[in-house]
Structure formats: C-alpha cells, structure tokens
Design a protein that fits this description.
Elements: H1 2-5, E1 11-21, E2 27-37, E3 55-58, E4 64-73, H2 76-84, E5 91-92, E6 95-98, E7 105-107, E8 114-116, E9 137-143, H3 148-153, H4 160-173, E10 187-192, E11 196-204, E12 209-216, E13 224-232, E14 235-244, E15 248-252, E16 259-265, E17 271-278, E18 283-286, E19 289-301, E20 304-315, E21 319-322, H5 332-339, H6 341-347, E22 351-354, H7 360-378, E23 384-388, H8 394-399, E24 410-416, H9 422-436, E25 443-448, E26 457-461, E27 464-468, E28 480-484, H10 487-502, E29 507-509, H11 510-546
Parallel strand pairs: 2-6, 2-10, 23-24, 24-25
Antiparallel strand pairs: 1-2, 1-4, 3-4, 5-6, 7-9, 8-9, 9-10, 11-12, 12-15, 13-14, 13-16, 16-17, 18-21, 19-20, 22-28, 23-26, 25-29, 26-27, 27-28
C-alpha cells in the first residue's frame, strides 16, 4: 500500500532516541519514528534554540549519554529502505547507529497499515507516541521481538539512565517511554493521510442524515468512498458505502444514527482514514456550585489541638441546553443486559457480593456459599496459589489450602506475627508438617515480621488476583464481597506479595518461627526448673543445719 501512496509524500523526518556509550563512543538505537510528510503538513515545534545540530542531550550519567535527535532522511525511498531494513542502514549525521537486538517483527506483516483516527486527544496505544495529526495516521511498526533493548536499558529499580530517557521523552515528545516501555527498541513508520487534512461531520435532522465537509490538501480534492456504520447497543443497524464526489455535501440516512462510525476509502478501496464510533450530542447539561462558607473544626491530637477548615458549597440547579432524550430506544436492550451483568460477573468469579443475614441458618448457608466460591477459585490454579491474610490460621489451612485438589499446585500462605499468636503458629506448623509428610504436594507458610505490612486479604491463583473483604475465617459471615483485580494491577500486587514472601527482611518460615518459640519455651522451663532446684536445695540445706 505504501508503494502506491509514496509519490504523494515529499520528505521524511526521523525522530530518534539514542544512547552513546561513554567509553567506546558507540551509538545505540532506543526508539525512533520515521514520518513521511506532505508539503502542507504541520511542521514540528522542535528542534528549537535549545537543540544543537538537530539533537538535545541528557548527560552526566555513569555509562551512557542520551540524545533525542531529529533529522531529515535524503528521500522517501531511502526512508522506506531504512524502515524495512534498519540494521546496517541506520545512519544519523554520518554516525552508524547500532542495535542491541538482532531482529525485528513487522506489524502488520503485510502491505496494509494500521489505521488510526486523529490522535489529538489520544493517551493510549501506538498513536499516543506518534506525531499529532488531525488527518489520522497510517502506521507500520518494526518491533524488537527479542526485547533485548528493553532488558539492557530498563531495570527493576529506577536508574539514572531510566530517568534520563524519561526526562527526554516527557519534555520533548509528550509521553513517558519508561511507563510505555513496550515501545523501547521499536521503529515506527507514521504516514499522515495524504488525501485530506480533516473531515468535519455534523447531524442533519430534516431530512435525517449527516453533513460533511472535506478540508483538502494543496493537491486538491480526490473522490472518496464513505462507509457509514450505525450501531444500536451491540448490533449493527445500518452499514452502507457512499460515493463522495464533492468536497461538501449531505448523505441521507434511513434513521437518526446512534453510534456513528465512518470509514474512508480511496478509489482503489484502500482504507485510508477512520472516525471512531461516536454519538451526536442532542443536549448538554452543566451544573454550578457556589461557596457558602468555611466550616472550622478543632480536634484534639497527640500534638495538641489542630484546626481543620473545610469549604462548603451549595449545588445549584443544573442548566440544560437542547432537549434531553427521556427514553433511548437504541440502547434499551443493551442497558437491560448491563443491569444483569452482576450475574455474569458472579458466574465468572469476577465479583460476588454476599449480603449477610441476621438468622443463624441463613448466615451459615451464606458462609458455606462464600467458602465454596473461594475453593472454586483456588481449584482453577495450575501452578501456584498464594493465600494472604494476617489472621490466616490452622483451621483456615484445613478449610481452604487442604481443599486444593491438584497435588501439582504449590500452596504459599502469608500471615502476620501481629495477628497470629505463638500458640497458633505452633498449631499451623503441626498441621502443615502433617500435610507435607503425605505425597500431596507442599504447603509453605511464611509469617510477616514486626508491624504487618499486609492489611487486605488476597488470593493469587497463577497470574490472577482476587481481593476479599474480610479474613478467611470470617468470610461470608457478614456482608462482604470478593472481586477480581484487573490484570495490570494484579501484576503489581503479585510482585509485592512475592517480595514479602521470599525476602527474610519481611517474613520467615513459620516452622522456624514455631521452633524458635518452642526452643524459647524449653529454655524458659529449663531455667525455671534449675531455679526451683536451687531453691529446693537451699531450703533442704537450711533444714539440715537447724537439726
């Protein structure tokens, strides 16, 4: 596709994040975007007077200096060659740029591109790290599939090198490459739509349809094809292609569109731009609050009286522009499904609310249902389970850990010295020693030291994490819930749990802890017996002397 379009572009601008080894002076590629441009494309706001020879530098680091470079590649054909064959062909200011990785994977793999809408307000995805263009973007990428660049420059703890990369990309490119490290090592070919700068769409009510206006480029208007898709709920209600032969016009539709999506094709039926699904606004409501007063309250604290000031506001009646729709037929059925979503979430064990009960019989039934839900989650694990609860005791081990049916699952339990007594710790040690003597796999319990860092209760089954609203031994006894944590947040929780569990700084094996207590108890008894013996012998000696 790019071979057909390349004649429409006049130049190629490359933006690169580079690292220079301070000792060898070798250059390494970290990230780059090659953009093909048309004469009337908006120019970059950088380089500016803070740049020297087309680059800005972040220096003073241990091993590397980091540079952000912008340069013009000699021709569009050469830019395409650099993108398609980067290793050995990446040269900036007569410097050969090396790659930490030895291979790339092209995405998409074929000739057609990824197609993005205008990225003026985009904070996610590939388009958020590319030059901002109202026309939309056609994008190809070369991905460092080995992730060697990422692994070489990014560590688990924040380094000076990482801070330098972060500062350069935030200040000059508008995104944080450390937060979006999936882009490190990659090369992107970003191509603004060559047919127009922007398309404006508005709703026509009499007759029903849409008005359009195509803001063309310098090379003038070319006929296009509009594919309009209207979605009601999750169902397509209308899907049709229209020939567009005028720069301004109106397209009649059979009904008022609800969720309007526009796809734009050239005369060769290549998809060149999109307008993401959106709803036309029929009314706007906005409210206003007015400050009434400051509320002053004095509270006695450990450091004496402390005064707090809280601002209080009155909420005025909202203002409405337009006519709000009281009943929206297009989303009626989808809303009904959404209202029943809690049933599906409970079936998938993603969110369950146990409402609690006053009567003992009902409360007992709810508690058994709650325990059964946890056991079902645990029995979906294939590799590792973590049961994290400061109060996790020997009975919980029997009711939950013992119930994991697969002997191949490693069971790790994390509780706390703050919440588990020394006597209970010894009971736990006895229970798990009994279990571990059988050919059923192994249960390990680590007990957190000092003031417990753990407050909430978590279940980890392989890479999935659940939060539960009370201790295991009370779960379901009163109103509570269990909720699955989103995967990206779950990773953060798993990392912390593994750190607490595996580091002696945070926890120790409960069997060792119980043995320490037993040894301490035995030593105490020995000292007590020795003391009693000494007292006894002294008493006997006194009696003998009196005789």
């Amino acid at each position: 596709m790019i071979e057909k379009l390349k004649k429409k572009y006049t130049k190629a601008i490359r933006t690169s994040l580079l690292a220079q080894d301070k000792k060898t002076k070798n250059w390494f590629h970290l990230f780059s975007v090659i953009e093909l441009q048309i004469d009337d494309e908006y120019s970059y706001s950088i380089p500016n007077d803070k740049w020297t020879h087309g680059c800005v530098r972040q220096a003073g680091l241990d091993n590397y200096s980091f540079y952000l470079s912008i340069d013009e590649i000699s021709s569009v054909d050469e830019a395409l060659n650099v993108f398609n064959n980067p290793i050995g062909n990446f040269v900036i200011d007569r410097n050969n740029i090396s790659f930490v990785n030895t291979s790339f994977v092209k995405e998409p793999s074929g000739e057609h591109s990824l197609v993005f809408a205008s990225n003026f307000y985009t904070e996610k995805g590939i388009s958020s790290i590319l030059p901002i263009r109202k026309s939309g973007l056609l994008v190809w990428s070369q991905i460092d599939n080995e992730r060697k660049t990422d692994n070489h420059f990014i560590s688990s703890t924040v380094s000076k090198d990482m801070l330098a990369m972060q500062q350069l990309t935030i200040e000059w490119l508008g995104f944080d490459i450390i937060q979006k490290k999936e882009h490190i090592g990659n090369i992107y070919l970003s191509v603004p739509n060559p047919y127009f700068r922007e398309i404006e769409i508005s709703l026509s009510t009499e007759p029903i349809g849409v008005f359009y206006k195509i803001l063309t480029r310098k090379n003038g208007f070319e006929p296009l094809k509009f594919r309009i898709i209207d979605t009601h709920g999750d169902v397509i209600a209308f899907d049709k292609v229209f020939e567009v032969n005028n720069q301004v016009g109106r397209i009649e539709l059979p009904h008022k569109p609800h969720l309007f999506e526009l796809r734009i094709y050239n005369q060769q039926d290549d998809l060149i731009a999109i307008h993401e699904p959106a709803t036309f606004i029929s009314s706007i409501q906005f409210g206003m609050s007015m400050k009434q007063a400051d509320f002053h309250v004095k509270v006695e604290t450990e450091k004496g009286k402390k005064e707090f000031v809280v601002e209080k506001f009155s909420k005025e009646k909202p203002n409405i522009i337009g006519k709000p729709e009281v009943f929206i037929a297009e989303s009626y059925f989808k809303k009904a499904d959404k209202d029943r979503l809690y049933i599906e979430l409970a079936q998938r064990k993603e969110f369950i609310f146990f409402q609690g009960a006053k009567e003992e019989t009902e409360r007992s039934k709810l508690k058994e249902n709650a325990k059964a839900a946890i056991r079902e989650i645990l029995n979906n694990a294939n590799d590792t389970c973590y049961l994290c609860d400061p109060y996790f005791n020997s009975m919980d081990i029997i009711e939950f850990a013992f119930q994991i049916k697969s002997s191949g699952v490693k069971i790790n339990i994390l509780n706390s010295k703050e919440a588990v007594s020394k006597v209970e710790a010894q009971k736990i040690a006895t229970v798990i020693n009994e279990y571990n003597s059988k050919p059923f796999g192994k249960i390990d319990v680590h007990i957190l030291r000092g003031n417990s860092i753990l407050h909430d209760r978590f279940i980890v089954a392989d890479k999935n994490v659940w939060f539960i609203g009370s201790s295991f031994n009370e779960f379901g006894n009163r109103a509570t819930c269990i909720a699955k944590i989103p995967e990206s947040s779950g990773k953060l929780i798993i990392n912390e749990i593994e750190k607490w569990y595996n580091s002696e700084e945070y926890s120790q094996d409960i069997i060792e802890y119980a043995k320490e207590n037993e040894d301490s108890k035995n030593n105490f008894l020995k000292r007590l017996l020795l003391k009693l013996k000494t007292i006894f012998l002294k008493t006997i000696g006194k009696i003998k002397r009196k005789k």
